[in-house]
Amino acid sequence: MPDDPQLGGSADRPLRIVIGCDTFGPDVNGAAKFAERLAAGMVERGHEVHVVAPGAENGPNVVRTEVHEGQAMTVHRLRSWRWRPHPWLRYALPWRIEQNAAHVLDTVKPDVVHFQSHIVVGRGLARQAVARGIRLIGTNHFMPDNAMQFTPFIGPLREPVIRALWRAAGRTFGLAAEVTTPTLKAAQYLERYTELDKVHAISCGLHVDHYTADLTPRAENVVLFLGRVEAEKHIDELLRAVALLDPALTTRVVIIGDGEQRGALEKLARDLGLADRVLFAGYTTDEYLREQLTRASVFAMPSRAELQSIATMEAMASGLPVVGANAMALPHLIHDGENGFLYEPGDIQGFADRLTQVLTMPHDERVALQRDSLRIVGGHDIRRTLDTFEALYRGRPVSDPVVDTGVIGVVERDVDPAG
């Protein structure tokens, strides 16, 4: 396929890119983090990037320069309202999105629009981009099942609402020239429920060289979880599994992140007799996060609805063995018996057994798991992701990257057991 004529037919010409998001920094979630890294990566490559996202306060639309992932970019913040059932999520006003999207596109005159969700911002930008003949790319991070906990739709209403959400997704993503999602499993899922075809599986990617692996023996057993502290993550299974471990292992749990389930999980930890061994660290600095990733013994991810799990990739880039649920896209990252172990969702004893297996294995076997985490995550280096999206933006054919192989550098360092 030749270059899209509207993009000038030159791989060297910088592009003007609009990235539309329903969630963006300072929000803390996988979709927001991907959008930040994508926008920053494109700025670093010399492109002009405009992000359209909900504002953080009840005020008028504003356009301002913001710094994300160390790069300055133009962000169009739209007036938004808080989605009350959710602890922090805000949505741009849906009845004004067409007008707002039209204004942004007519002002910016982008070469390409890339929307990250079909809910509000993506829907408006998609329709207005098509009306103006602007190249349109869509990426899906949305799982209707995850959203249902923050709606009043329960019981017999649940399934019809989920089907309606998928139909809405199909209508908006059907407008795009190319559709992507982070993993093959997620692509198959999207194709199945929306009747789209040829959805690209393109990893969210991460800067694998920003993380440090420690291959030395551990002075203590620490199980780490990173992510939103919400019901969909099933963190209760982690606490219940740790409660079944041999007390002689003296295992601690560190939970980095926050959310509406924190209070309930703190109570569960007390009820299980784990209160003095579970640290709810909340949101932390990147430095603290990376330090904990390097120092931990094993990473745990009990979520059952991950379209990819950037948190798991961060753990792998830090050389951690991973124990996670055998669900959705996690098996793309956790290769059972290679870089960690899978357990069947809901099988608490099985979860505990897999954690015990990692915490008690000989050092050389543990190092083998660590090295395989590093090898597998090497295929998710964000430079490959940016290369692929840059090609899609220019209208060039792409092959979905193979993301289960690759090697990255290992930084082996001595760690003072005393901390």
Outline the structure in words.
By secondary structure, this protein is α/β, with parallel strands linked by helices. The chain folds into two domains: 5-201, 3-Layer(aba) Sandwich (Rossmann fold), CATH 3.40.50.2000; 208-379, Glycogen Phosphorylase B (Rossmann fold, 3-Layer(aba) Sandwich), CATH 3.40.50. Helix content is 36%, strand content 18%. It is built from 14 helices and 16 strands. The protein has helices at residues 30-44, 97-108, 121-131, 144-147, 158-173, 184-194, 235-243, 262-271, 286-295, 310-317, 330-333, 348-360, 363-377, 382-393; strands at 16-20, 48-54, 62-68, 71-78, 80-82, 90-92, 112-115, 135-139, 178-181, 200-201, 222-226, 252-256, 278-282, 298-301, 322-325, 340-343. Strands 3-4-2-1-7-8-9-10 form an eight-stranded mixed sheet. It has a six-stranded parallel sheet with strand order 13-12-11-14-15-16, with helices on both faces. A two-stranded antiparallel ribbon has the order 5-6. Helix 1 (30-44) crosses helix 14 (382-393), helix 2 packs across helix 3 (121-131) and helix 10 (310-317) crosses helix 13. The protein is globular, with a radius of gyration of 22 Å. Mean pLDDT is 87; it is low at 1-6 and 403-419.
